[in-house]
Amino acid sequence: MLSNTFVALSLLPLTLAHFQLTFPKARGFSDDVESNFPCGGFNDVQKQRTDFPISGGPIQLNMGHPQTNIAVYVAIGDNPGSGFSVVARQQLTVDGLGNFCIGSISLPTSLNVSDGTLASIQVVSNNHESGGLYQCADVKLVNTQLSQTDYNNNCKNNTNVRVSQENISGNPNGSSTNASPSTSATGATPSSSKGAAAQAKAVSWVLGAVGLAGMAML
Ligand SMILES: [Cu+2]
C-alpha cells in the first residue's frame, strides 16, 4: 500500500506533491521535510530576497491536495528563526489542485513597516495526518507595487480551484501556539499608487483558466 502510494506519487509532477510556495520565491521545497517547522526544513535565510509591496502583494501557491487549509504568517526582521507571529491571512480552506493565488497579503498597519524593512513569510497548511506543512520566503518590504505584468505572472488560479471557507480560527497545523496571533491583518489594503485599482480587482480570488483539469489524487 505504502509503496504503491509512493510509486503513484512519484509519477505525478513534482508540483502536485503537498503544496509549494512559488511567489514570493520560496527558500526551497522538499517533499520529504516540508512537515518540519519552521519553513519546511529550510532554515537559512535567502540571500536573494524578493521585493514585496507593503501595500499588499500576491501569494502564489501550487496545491497538491484536493483540499487544503492554509494560513499565512509574517515575521519582521532579517532572520526571524521560528518567530512568525503576525497573522497576515487567517486560515482558509482551498478546494482543488494546481495554481492558487491569495491576491493580496498585507501587514497590519500597526506594525508601521517602512520601505526596505526585511521580513519573512511563512505559509502553513495542514498535513495528511497531524501536524503541518511549511514553506517560507524571505522578502524586502517595499513601497513599490508590482507592475501589472508581474502581478499577473505571480497570481494565477487554476480553473477548479476555489476558496470554500475563510476566517477559520486556529492554525492549519492544529496547534494554537506555534504561530499564535499577536497582530491580525485587517484585510484592508491601502490603494494609493498606480496599479492599485487593477490589482484590487484581482484580490477577490479571481479564478483564472490555466488548465490542468480535475486530476484526481488518491
Ligand atoms: Cu501531500
UniProtKB/TrEMBL annotation:
Cellular location(s): Cell membrane
The UniProt record lists the keyword Membrane: yes
Domain Copper acquisition factor BIM1-like, chain residue ranges per copy: 17-159
Biased composition (Low complexity): 169-193
Region (Disordered): 164-193
Membrane topology classification: Lipid-anchor; GPI-anchor
CDD domains: LPMO_auxiliary-like
Pfam families reported for this sequence: BIM1-like_dom
Principal cellular location given in the protein's record: membrane
Species name: Cucurbitaria berberidis CBS 394.84
Protein name: Copper acquisition factor BIM1-like domain-containing protein
Keyword Glycoprotein among record annotations: yes
Parts forming coiled coils: none
InterPro entries documented for this protein: BIM1-like (IPR046936), BIM1-like_dom (IPR046530)
Entry GO terms, CC: plasma membrane; side of membrane
UniProt keyword annotations, A-Z: Cell membrane, Glycoprotein, GPI-anchor, Lipoprotein, Membrane, Signal
Residues in the signal sequence: 1-17
Lineage: superkingdom: Eukaryota
